[in-house]
Amino acid sequence: MWLCLVALVGLYYLLRWYRERQVVSHLQDKYVFITGCDSGFGNLLARQLDMRGLRVLAACLTEKGAEQLRNKTSGRLETVVLDVTSTESIAAATQWVKERVGDRGLWGLVNNAGIASPCAPIEWLSKQDFVKILDVNLLGVIEVTLSMLPLVKKARGRVVNLSSILGRVAFPGGGYCVSKYGLEAFSDSLRRELLYFGVKVAIIEPGFFNTDLVKSDSFLMSPKELWNQASSEIKEAYGEEFLASYLKFLTAVPQKSSKDLFMVTDCMEHALIACHPRTRYSAGWDAKLFYIPLSYLPTSLVDAIVEWTSIKPAKAYEANR
User: Could you say which of 185, 209, 273, 295 has the lowest number of CB atoms within 10 Å?
Assistant: First the structure.
C-alpha cells in the first residue's frame, strides 16, 4: 500500500517536472513589460530576460535608474519612466508599449513595483499612510493591468504579479500585508476571468530578500517619524523600549534576508516562458519551509505563534493579567 502511494507521488512529481521544463517557442519575438526596474527583482529580471533574448520593455521610476539599466543590457532592451500612482504616466507608458509591440501584442506583463513603508503598528498610522502603500502595491497594479490588458489578450500572454508571503500570513506592521492580501485576491479573480481568453496569471510569493525595499531610509526610519507624531496615549501604551526594539528588528531584517535574488527572478522567468506555468510560486526557503506551511495552520495557533514571537508593548502585560 505504502509502496504504491510513494510510487504515485513520485510519478506525479516526475510528470510535473517534465511539463514544467517545456518552454514556449519564438522567445526572441516576445515583448515583456516590467515595472519597478530601478533596482531589486525588476532590475535583475530585466537583465535576465534580456540575456535570454526576449524583448524587454523596462519601466523605471527615475531616468537615472533607466540609464543605469540600459548601460548593463543589450540594445534590445528599452526603458520608459513610469510612476504607477499616476494615471497620466500609466497612459503614456501604455501608448509607448503599443507603438513597440504593434499587432503582436504584449506577451508578458510583470507587476513588480512596490514599497514597504510606512511600516509601524496600525494605531500609529493614519488613513493616508495606508493609502500611500495601497496606491503603489495594489491600486497601481490594478491600473497598470487594466491599461495593458488589451495588449496582453492580443498575444494570449501572461500577467505575473509580485505578491509576498505576507499576502498569505498577516503580521503586525501596517499597510504592506493589507496591500498584498488585496493583490492576491485581485490576481485570483483576474486569472479566473482571463482563462477564457487564453491569458495565464501567476502570483510570486517571496519570503524575505535583501533588496532596497528593506534597506531604504524610509523603511528604517518611518517608525521613528510616526512615533514622534503619535499621541501621548500611544506613547504611554507602547513605551520607548518597544520603539527601540522595533527599530532594532527592522535594522536586522536586511542581514537576516536572503541575498539570492535569483530565487525570485527564476520564478518570474518560468511564469513567463514555460508552456505550463504554475499558479503560485513560493520563492525562498523561509517561504517554503515556514511561512507557507504557517498559512495552513488554524488561525488561533498562528495568533499564538505571532504573539509569542512579537515585540510586546509596555502596557501589554498589565492588560493580560
Answer: 185
Q: Which of 176, 181, 238, 291 is catalytic?
A: 176
Write 38-41 long-range contacts (CB < 8 A, 24+).
Answer: 38/62, 38/64, 38/65, 38/66, 38/68, 38/69, 39/65, 39/211, 39/212, 40/112, 40/211, 40/212, 40/213, 40/261, 41/112, 41/162, 41/206, 41/209, 41/211, 41/261, 41/264, 41/265, 41/268
18 is catalytic: no
Digitized pLDDT (tens) for each residue of the chain, 321 residues in all: 777 777 777 777 777 776 767 878 888 999 999 999 999 999 999 999 999 999 999 999 999 999 999 999 999 999 999 999 999 999 999 999 999 999 999 999 999 999 988 889 999 999 999 999 999 999 999 999 999 999 999 999 999 999 999 999 998 878 999 999 999 999 999 999 999 999 999 999 999 999 988 877 777 788 889 999 988 899 989 989 988 988 898 888 888 898 999 999 999 999 999 989 999 999 999 999 999 999 999 999 999 998 888 888 887 765 444
